[in-house]
Amino acid sequence: MNSPAPLAPATVPVPAARVRSLEIGDITCEAGQTLRNARMSVHTWGRLNEAGDNAVLVLHALTGDGYVVGEAGPGQPTPGWWPGLIGEGRVLDPDEHFIIAPNVLGGCRGSTGPSSPASDGRPYGSSFPRLTIRDQVAAEAALLDVLGVDTLAAVVGGSMGGMRALEWATTYPGRVRRCIAFATSAIATADQIGWATPQLYAIRGDAGFVGGDYYPGPGPRNGLEVARQIAHATYRSAENFDDRFGAAPQLGEEPSVGGRYAVQSYLQHHGRTLVRRFDANSYVVLTDSMNSHDIGRGRGGVETALCRITAELTVAVVDSDRLFTPADGAVIAQAPACRELTTIESPYGHDAFLIETHQVFDILARALGSSSARPDASPTGTTFIESTEGPHVPPVACTAVPRRLQASGLW
After folding, report:
1. Is 346 a catalytic residue?
2. Mean pLDDT of the 325-350 span
3. Which of 85, 223, 254, 382 has minimal CB crowding within 10 Å?
4. CATH dotted code for 18-187+294-384
5. What does the pLDDT look like over 176-233, one tens digit per residue?
6. What H or E segment, with its residue span, contains residue 314?
7. Which one, of 196, 130, 129, 131, lies nearest residue 159 by Cα?
8. What was the pLDDT predicted at 378?
9. Among residues 41, 159, 185, 370, which one is catalytic?
C-alpha cells in the first residue's frame, strides 16, 4: 500500500521571501467605486519557469497576510501562519514552484486598504469602497498580470482564503488548473453573517470609531477587541473549550468576586493581541467582504456557478468546525470538477486548517501530485473520484449532508 511522501525534516531552513509592493492599476468594484492606482504587497518564493506553469497562489484568511512561513520579528508581529509549507523538500518547494502570497486588497499589511492614503494624501477611512470577495480576486488577477503569470498550477486557501480560491476557480476558470479549498463555503451562510453582525456592531458602536475616520487616533480598540473575542469563539469547537478550560477560574482569580474564568482570559488575550497589530477599518471591510461571498451571484445561483469550475477541485472540511461546517464543504464538492472531498479530523474546530498542518499538507501534496498517495490508500474521511475524462467527474459522495439550495442560490 502506498503512502504520502513524508514531509521534509523540521530542520529544513525557512526560505527568505522576496517582498514587494506593486501597483496593479485601477480596480473598479462591484459597488461601482474605483480604487485608483491600487497597490498590493506580495511575498514570493522561487521563480516562474520557462513554461510559465509552476505558479501557486496561497491566500490568507481574515487577519492573515502574505507571511506564510517564518518567525516573528521586526516589522512582522506574528510568525508565519502555515509553518512548514514552503522550503526545500516541502510541499511547496521554491526550486519547483513559484509561490505567490499577497496581502488581500482592503487589508493593512501593505496592500491598499482603509488606512492607505487616498488622492488627497489622507487615509481613506470611511471613504474606502465596499469590497466583495470578487473584487479582491480581481485585484489578485491584476497582480498576477503584473508578475507575468498567465496561469496557476494551483490556488490554495482556507476560510476567507478559501472563498477567494473558489472565486478564482469560478471567475477565471481558464487560469486555474487546481483549486484546493479548506474550511470554507460557496456562499456566506446566515449563521456566518449572524456571527459577523455583533462583531461589526462592536467596532462601529465604539466611540473611538468616529464613523471610520479615526486616524491618526487609536481607533475603536475596545470594539475591535470584543469583535475578535466573538470571532475567536467561533474558530474553536465547544469540545476544545470544555476540554481546555471547563468552568475553571483564571489562575489567581475568583469569578464570584469579580474575577475571570480561564476562558474569558483566553479570549481577552486574543482580542488584545489583534488590536496591537490590525486596523479596525480593515477588519470591517474584510468582514463585510466575507458576508458578500456568493460564487453564484449573477451566475444563476451556486449550483450553476459550480459547473463553471474546470480546475481539479479538492475540498477539505473540519469535522468539528461550527462556523464553516462539513455540510458547507459538501455543497462545494457537488461541483462536477471535484476530485476529492476530505475531512480533517480535529477537536480544535475551524482553526484546525491552521493547526493540523500534517493533515493539511498531506491533502495539498495529493492535490498537487507531489506524493504517491492513491485512492486505495486514502485516509479516513476521504472520498476520491477517479475519472478518465479529466476534471469533469460525477458529483462526489460524502458523509456530510449538503445544505439544501433554494432556487435563488441561497440556503
Report:
1. no
2. 97
3. 254
4. 3.40.50.1820
5. 999 999 999 999 999 999 999 999 999 999 999 999 999 999 999 999 999 999 999 9
6. strand 312-318
7. 196
8. 38
9. 159
Of all residues in the chain, what percent are helix, strand and coil, respectively (each to 5)?
35, 20, 50
Tell me the residue length of the chain: 411
- 1 vs 101: CA distance, rounded Å: 35
- Average pLDDT over every residue of 369-379: 40
Task: Work out the average pLDDT over 152-181.
Answer: 98
User: Is 242 a known active-site residue?
Assistant: no
What average pLDDT is seen over the chain? Answer: 90
Active site residue 351: no
Of these residues, 65, 206, 279, 321, which one is catalytic? 321
The Cα 80–Cα 19 span in angstroms is: 14
The three cell numbers of residue 191 are 449563521
Instruction: Please state which of the ranges 115-119, 189-193, 252-256, 398-402 shows the lowest mean pLDDT.
Output: 398-402
Closest by Cα among 169, 108, 105 to 139: 105
**Residue in 350, 362, 370, 371 annotated catalytic:** 350
- Return the C-alpha cell found at 112: 491598499
Which CATH topology does 193-291 take? Answer: Rna Polymerase Sigma Factor; Chain: A (1.10.1740)
Candidates 297, 362, 323; CA nearest to 3 is 362
- The CATH 3.40.50.1820 domain(s) of the chain lie at 18-187+294-384
Q: Detail the DSSP E strand segments found in 53-114.
A: 55-59, 98-102
Choose among 179, 139, 136: nearest CA to 156. 179
